[in-house]
Structures
1.
Amino acid sequence: MKDHSDIAIEFDHVHYSVNGTRNLISGLNLAIRSHEILMLLGRSGSGKSTTLKLINRLLSPTEGEVRVNGCATHRWDPIQLRRSIGYAVQEVGLFPHYTVEGNVALIPKAEGWNRSRICGRVKEILSLVGLPYDQFARRYPHELSGGQRQRVGLARALAANPPILLMDEPFGALDPLTRAELQREFKLLQKRLGKTVVFVTHDVTEALLLGDRIALMENGASVGVFGPEEFLRSSDESVRAYVEILRSGFQLLNG
Amino acid sequence: MSFPEFVLKHRVEIMTLSLEHLRLVLWSMMFSLLIGIPLGVLLARRPKLRAVVLGTSNVIQTIPSLALFGLLLPVPWLGVRADRLTITALTLYALLPIVRNTYNGIVGVDPSVLEVATGMGLTPRQILWNVEIPLASPIILGGVRVATVITIGVATIAAAIGAGGLGEFIFRGLAMVDNNIILAGAIPAGLMALVADGAIGLLQVASRWHR
């Protein structure tokens, strides 16, 4: 037996199908280590987002088991499980009727923190994601730019200090410059926080830039898990298709 | 006698009947909100009940108000007092727009917002109070607005069974073929409806400004 102590999340022969017909996940095996950023890379429909939702039990596996901290998700209390996992998604994630502060404070409030602790935490976490409290706390999501909204989404996911963070294409809708800025900052932030991060993307560059490891997904299963260097050198056909995209970009430049 | 003179002379009675009218409306609206909003939320959770409940309240809506008063008259506890009976009938009328709009509002909340709320670890109760009701509130208030205006109008019929209110003037004026008396009932009732419509409309805008 392998030592499981540093495995935070584990997929054990997981199948997930809708109405027993459409297989969204078929035979997924995956181990996510504590404190690493694991990128789930793949095309639309390859099961990346479904994989995330199996971790916080928005979905339950039809077959097999997903274990978080060694305990199968169906044996967790769902509320407790979800509160120990931060969840950040693209665009729609923020509640339009709450201010920035209201959005970030939501889970600490639900956890019954007292007022001064919540306020202190909101200030701390907003400055961590580069949004000064005095300037942003009272604003509503529609008064923010796309990049600022994603920062708030990240702050909200981190608010109750969960050890695990799930991110579903959080920077997907941003312009390339803002995206690069947020990617850079996220990488620095992760160095300080050391969360276990599962990050969904369809962008190869993002996967290589942020990932400690990259899991390539195809048809609801993992083709393989690679370090960034390994990924670039891999002879696997599916991986090479992605690396080819990068290469053809450079070739275009060199004429 | 000109209409202004008539109003001046009967100002105390106009005030009294207006307050009586308002009282009937407020009680009815309170009951229909207390019943209608939870019922609308329940329908959003149990779609199977939807056809039955909305169908029933649609049928109630089609009963002419005078007939509904007559229909409720033989009911033991209700028929004893005219105001009880009136408030019950008005509550029934106000119910449909409130239930229907609450249902539509809750069902219309973006499912991806609900998924995020669930994924964050909010309990179903917290999602209802913190996400669904606030996001549905412009639509719910739209129902309340319609219901209030209907109630103010229908409450004038209550005078026919002796429950008082501004309908007193209208029925008296009709019997005496005196326009001044009719207007002394109709104009305050109309103003009341306009003010209520405007006020709830403002609330509706306030609940929507964050979009």
2.
Amino acid sequence: MNTEFWTMPDVDDFVEQLTAHLDEHAARSGTSAQPGTPDREGAGALTEELRTAATWAEPPAGLREAILARARTESAAQSAPAVESALAVESAPGAESALVAESAPAAEPASAPEPAPVPLASPPTVPAAPDAEVAGPAEPGWRARWLAGWRLRWRRLAWAVPATALAAALFTVGVLAVDRALQPDQPPAEAFAIAGTQLAPQARGEVRVSDMPSGFSMEVDAEGLPAAAAGSYYAAWLRGPEGTVPLGSFHMRGTGAPVRLWSGVSPDRYPELLVTLQAEGDPLVPSQLVVVTASLAD
Amino acid sequence: MTPPDPAVSAADAPADVGGSAATRDSLPAATRVRFRDGDTDALAAVYDRYARAVWAVAMTVTRADHLAQEATQETFIRAWNAARSYDPERDLGPWLLTIARYTALDLLRRELRSTRGGHEAEQDGVVEAPAMDRIWLSWAVQEALRQLAEHEREVVRLSFYEDLSHAQIAERLSLPLGTVKSRSHRAHRRLAELLAHLRDQPESTPVIASKESDEGRGS
């Protein structure tokens, strides 16, 4: 048992021994002695860190721009009240000053809404440039008047927005109703209980099986099945006397929605449902890690 | 702008994450001041400087790309929102590490809470938070790796991550075997020097030695 690192007297010795450890590890790399060989000098955590994919991974492309766009949006939202007050002062002598004053309270800091979060790693959806332009202290008067006039016109048409939304909603409901009326009746689903194995003892729920024109729809509604860790996933299978058929894969990292799987074979002939935990990159056969089972026999 | 996260205080921040080497490699004082004052260009510079380290912490804690992505974004936005409370006289790294750690742990807790089934989150063995020393190690390793020369970093990556022998690295890089060996040794020595501060843990538990030491004490 090595405790040299624990009682290291000074930095130089520490550096020497850590260097030696790394050298030794590198000398063993790519050889048959590498797998399972324990770290001699107790720098296992460092070695493990250097062998981890995340250590060498770059943050996703687009994340930088997403963050900057969100920061700019929040910045612009903060400067909005100053813009409004500057406009009000500048256009006060004009005919639309009352309108600007009327709209000013909506732009007070206390009532300024939180900007919507920018989607992760996506291009900026709310460009800050127009706000930045407006925010300039030397705003020309014609521009302020034009903006105020535009707002006046917009207020006159404000009734059209809810009316259009209502009309669109009614139209959509109508289309859906007609579409539903023309659809053939859905076949009734048959529900079977699912149960977790010792690997997921909390898992429970049901699977609803429907005989559809394109195959058997299997909707798994599971509770208590933990999210699959990074690098792993769940795979569902139907097993019977004639073999095992894959149904699909999922990870359970979100919540709320059942998992929809499809089978091209009848549960009558493959009456056992299995969910296994699989490692990415492993062969596409059921692993030994069965987490959920269900019997689909009538 | 949202108020500064009360959970993120100077007292929580490690005193010298990355050690003197990392401090030497910190952002220019002018950039830190501009960051404190809300300059988005300074935020871009902060991202460029610390993104990999924050990403590594986020991955170490959450172990899932989609969560790490969210944690990284939230870390920089939280830092941005709390920038007024940041003292530009101090290194930004420890402060950012603290925010990154809290943010990633928050996200992880959220994920645990959202596990359905009505049972306690702690029962979900698939997802568990790593210890602080592991998070600190991830950060420190990133800080050290970024200070290696590109060719040194590549040799370390090929050796540890791709598990190539010196001969295989020489073939891959079209270099003489002796060059690879000497370059590898230099990179390891430099890495060891940059990580030397890890033996002086605030909790008196050397990160690098903790696993072995625990074994030693247990025997």
